[in-house]
Amino acid sequence: MVRCGDDTFCFGDAHLVFAVEPLVTPEGRGLADVAVEQLEQRGVTIARVERSHSHVLSVAGSTREGWIEGRILSSRGWVFLINAPTEPEGSALADILDRKIAVIER
Known about the structure:
By secondary structure, the protein is an alpha+beta fold. The protein contains two helices and seven strands, in the order E-E-E-H-E-E-E-E-H.
């Protein structure tokens, strides 16, 4: 994995983008709810949503262009989005990210 932008890392054709977002919107909605809703509004067909750690929501789905994986660390306000042409490429980068998150969430 190499840095290929200010907030982007690349792993082959897969890209990981990092953002810090408010934990709660002014309307009182939580970060995880808003993030999943925004993915759906942008045409992502959500294939799975699971909680990989107590404060981490994992989201995966398909788009017209390929595969999306998301990790939302609600306790920190961190959002990671992975965009890849295929599910295996996105999942490979998501596995690397998940190992790093596991260290943080111990």
